[in-house]
Design brief:
By secondary structure, this protein is an alpha/beta fold. It folds into three domains: 4-48 and 454-563, OB fold (Dihydrolipoamide Acetyltransferase, E2P) (Beta Barrel), CATH 2.40.50.460; 57-257, inorganic pyrophosphatase (n-terminal core) (Alpha-Beta Complex), CATH 3.90.1640; 342-450, Diaminopimelate Epimerase, Chain A, domain 1 (Roll), CATH 3.10.310.30. It contains 20 helices and 19 strands. Helix 5 (87-102) packs antiparallel against helix 10 (223-232) and helix 13 packs across helix 15 (307-340). The longest helix has 34 residues, at 307-340.
């Protein structure tokens, strides 16, 4: 699929000033300015994260109330740690559950993860009923609860208190909890607003450690789990999240949680792990448990005392992920075949596709796969009991939640945000929903949102690609939202013997001036004729280190190529 190339512009005066201060390559200064770093002091804080940069947990609204209620309960009352079934929720539960067990009577502590399909997202009535039947008087919710006004009222009527630790945007009416920890709530002075749910739980642990007079390491031991949540939940990797991710990755590589160690072993990862490994290797295995079976095993994995127990739970997650991948592949192939045979699909601005036998756990992933091929707002539906359920995914710049909201007359329920949403509807309403959704998208989507955009940080001539440049680039890790891996453009490049490998990929050998550079381009085989034509090309790429036969060399990871554009 052709992409729109967009070279992001940095403020020239700030780039020049920063280069004067840092005395490093101008391209690196341009990247820093694009990330909001324009002074020597800001660059120093960016390149040298320090645990002292973490904010005081007591700045968070209601932290004093939360700590007092927990201390009142520890060792005296039964406490239920409640969290969502995704990576953020399960890691948060694992952290707080372990902490409570270590500093209370473990017999008084339990955890609860709602079943994805029987209970759905967030606080459930079934979870509260479980707490009531088993005598819990305090529930601490993690990564959920901020919108559970009625359910928390229901719990209060049963004599159960709630402490809500959440990071989602609150509604106008807040639940009547004993304490609400959420930096996004109105009136909260906490200076960093983009913590994940596990991050909010970590701040509670930090405050409890201070009140109990425990050493700092008691809280810092959970940084690897918090970093995993940051990676998986796609929150910005800037500010406090960057500090947590930096030291969390350090712990992942030096002294990981037994559960993370087991997943590393099962993933056959041998090199130093980076955020991308957490996103693409660790997180899918954790999420697969909730998608395919029961996410409680994730908490057992991350709280396993022995490496052998962790490995056993890790193997269960690994099996779930293998099952998930099989369903994902088969469903994607079926969906693509159905769309290829639909003569009307090419003229539509949206994709809505339904098959009753598809696994509910993979429909969101499949929607993303279909967008990779067709790049339009997509809804994938399947049968779930007596109703139809599905997931929606969007394209750049289009609010899919608002589009679904416009179709509410045909839905039993829906929820989500700008980029993704979930829907339920009656079996007889699929065609009506498809028609209304298409009409809504066609009437509101901008033409540029139907073409994927490739954001480029800077032009980088081949003669700048040196170890000294790459070493500074690597110090910008960990990468993620708000600090994405820098993307470069090289102009007027010629082919020096590139070849297709494994039918889908290109092994590049390119030259610019007197400098030659090698690289790999995954899934770019369809563009090989452009190289065969012998014309100069422009190439978009990231930089990486390739190790072969104990030799390390820099190579391009090519994202896209196009005929060279004239300068002007």
């Amino acid at each position: 699929m052709e992409k729109r190339w967009n070279i992001v512009q940095a403020e020239a005066a700030k780039v020049e000033s920063l280069q004067t201060a840092l005395r490093i390559n101008e391209v690196l200064c341009r990247i820093l300015v694009l990330r909001g770093i324009s002074t020597f002091e800001a660059a120093k804080a960016f390149f040298r994260p320090n645990l002292s940069d973490l904010h005081d947990p007591w700045l968070m609204k209601d932290m004093d109330k939360a700590v007092e209620r927990v201390l009142q309960a520890l060792g005296r009352e039964k406490i239920l740690v409640y969290g969502d079934y995704d990576v953020d929720g399960t890691t948060a539960v694992a952290c707080l559950y372990q902490f409570f067990c270590a500093h209370s009577d473990p017999a008084l502590i339990d955890f609860y993860i709602p079943h994805r399909y029987r209970e759905g997202y967030g606080v459930s009535r079934a979870g509260i009923d479980y707490a009531n039947v088993h005598g819990f008087s305090l529930i601490v919710s993690l990564d959920c609860g901020i919108k559970s006004v009625d359910l928390i009222d229901y719990a209060a009527g049963l004599g159960i208190d709630f402490i809500v630790c959440d990071h989602h945007l609150p509604d106008a009416v807040l639940p009547a909890a004993v304490a609400i920890l959420n930096p996004k709530q109105e009136g909260c002075p906490y200076p960093y607003k983009e913590l994940c749910g596990c991050g909010v739980g970590f701040k509670l642990i930090t405050a409890l450690c201070q009140r109990l007079g425990l050493p700092e390491k008691e809280a810092l031991q959970y940084l690897d789990l918090v970093a995993t949540a940051i990676a998986a939940d796609i929150v910005p990797v800037d500010g406090e999240n960057r500090v947590i991710a930096y030291f969390g990755l350090k712990k992942v590589n030096e002294d990981p949680n037994n559960g993370i160690r087991a997943l590393i072993e099962l993933s056959s990862l041998t090199k130093e792990l980076k955020m991308t490994n957490l996103v693409f290797m660790i997180a899918p295995r954790v999420n697969a448990a909730g998608r395919m079976d029961d996410a409680r095993k994730v908490v057992h994995l991350f709280t396993a005392v022995s490496p052998s127990d962790a490995l056993a739970y890790g193997r269960a997650l690994h099996a779930d992920n293998t099952d998930r991948k099989e369903h994902d592949l088969n469903t994607t192939e079926e969906a693509l075949a159905l769309l290829a045979g639909d003569a009307d699909h090419a003229g539509r601005r949206s994709t809505v596709i339904y098959q009753p036998h598809w696994h509910k756990g993979v429909v969101g992933i499949v929607a993303s796969r279909l967008i990779e091929r067709y790049y339009r707002p997509t809804v994938v539906l399947t049968q779930s009991g007596e109703i139809i359920a599905g997931s929606a995914r969007s394209v750049n710049g289009f609010n899919v939640y608002e589009a679904i909201h416009a179709c509410r007359e045909h839905l039993l329920g829906y929820g989500g945000h700008f980029a993704a949403a979930g829907v339920t509807l009656e079996p007889g309403k699929v065609e009506a929903f498809r028609s209304k959704f298409e009409a809504t998208v066609a009437a509101t989507i901008q033409p540029q949102s139907l073409v994927p955009e490739l954001l480029i940080d800077a032009e980088l001539p081949f003669d700048c690609i040196r170890s000294s440049f790459y070493n500074i680039l690597e110090q910008m890790q960990p990468f993620g939202p708000a600090n994405t891996q820098p993307v470069f453009l090289a102009r007027g490049v010629t082919d020096r013997g590139s070849r297709i490998v494994k039918e889908q990929h290109i092994r590049f050998s390119l030259q610019q001036g007197a400098i030659q550079a090698d690289g790999i381009g995954f899934g770019l085989a369809a563009k090989f004729p452009l190289l065969q034509a012998g014309v100069p090309i422009d190439v978009v790429f990231t930089l990486e280190e390739n190790e072969w036969n104990n030799q390390k060399n820099l190579q391009l990871k090519v994202i896209d190529i196009a005929p060279a554009m004239p300068r002007g």
